[in-house]
Amino acid sequence: MRATIALRQQVAAALQACEDKKAANVAVLEMDKNAGAFTDYFVICSGSNPRQIQAIADDIRERLHAMTFAPRAWKATTWRSGC
């Protein structure tokens, strides 16, 4: 799949937000367009507590909004200890 420059910039902004907020286990999944994926990329990360996870999600959302990009779907998962 050939990503546009704007798409790569959006992924880079999300990754920078993860790094700035000290996210752990950061991964980017590039989806195969021929496999019927509904998105081009998933950015997945974890945090040590609910407040940190929310801060990561908020920072990503703010950065993408500043780039005049609004995510079509948004999910910040609930933190569970011992997982």
Spell out the blueprint of helices and strands.
Elements: H1 5-20, E1 24-30, E2 41-46, H2 50-66
Antiparallel strand pairs: 1-2
Helix pairs in contact: 1-2
Question: Quick summary of this structure?
Answer:
The protein has 83 residues and is an alpha+beta fold. It is 40% helix and 16% strand.
Tell me the β content.
15-25%
Name the structural class: alpha+beta
Mean pLDDT: 82
CATH class: Alpha Beta
Write a concise keyword list for the protein shown above:
single chain, Beta Polymerase, domain 2, 2 strands, two-stranded antiparallel sheet, 2 helices, alpha+beta, 83 residues, 40% helix
Provide an overview of this structure.
- With about 80 residues, the protein is of the alpha+beta class.
- Helix 1 (about 5-20) runs antiparallel to helix 2.
- Helix content is about 40%, strand content about 15%.
- The protein has one domain: Beta Polymerase, domain 2, CATH 3.30.460.10.
- It has helices at about 5-20, 50-65; strands at about 25-30, 40-45.
- The model is unreliable at about 80-83 (pLDDT under 50).
- It is globular and about 35 Å long.
